[in-house]
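Example S7 (C-alpha cells).
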C-alpha cells in the first residue's frame, strides 16, 4: 500500500504560480500518478496524469499553464501551476494507480488564486 501526502498549496494573486508536491511512503516507480481537484459544489475532475514512462496528459482547462512531473528517486510527483486563475481554486488531491490499485492522497490541499 502507498500513502500519499500533498503539500505546497495556498492562495495567491491571479497570474501567480504555485507548486504542489505529493510525497509517497514508498516507491512510485511502477505507478501512474495523477492530480485531481474538486471545487466547492462541483464534481472532482482530473487535472493531469504522468505515466511510469513520463508520458503526460492534461485537462484542457490547464493545458499550457500546469506541468506535472515526477522524481522517482524522491518518490514525489509535482504539479507546477502557472498563470493561476480564480477558477483554479479547489482542493487538490494526488493519486497513484497500478493495475486495480488506486491510492489517494490524504489531502486536502487547497490551492488557487483569489
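Recovered sequence:
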Amino acid at each position: 500500500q502507498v500513502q500519499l501526502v500533498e503539500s505546497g498549496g495556498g492562495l495567491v494573486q491571479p497570474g501567480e504560480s504555485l507548486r504542489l508536491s505529493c510525497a509517497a511512503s514508498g516507491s512510485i516507480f511502477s505507478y501512474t500518478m495523477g492530480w485531481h481537484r474538486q471545487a466547492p459544489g462541483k464534481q472532482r475532475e482530473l487535472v493531469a496524469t504522468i505515466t511510469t514512462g513520463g508520458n503526460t496528459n492534461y485537462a484542457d482547462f490547464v493545458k499550457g499553464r500546469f506541468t506535472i512531473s515526477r522524481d522517482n528517486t524522491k518518490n514525489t510527483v509535482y504539479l507546477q501551476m502557472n498563470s493561476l486563475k480564480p477558477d483554479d481554486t479547489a482542493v487538490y488531491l494526488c493519486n497513484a494507480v497500478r493495475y486495480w490499485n488506486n491510492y489517494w492522497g490524504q489531502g486536502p490541499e487547497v490551492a488557487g488564486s483569489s
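Notes on this example. The first strand starts at residue 4 and ends at 7.
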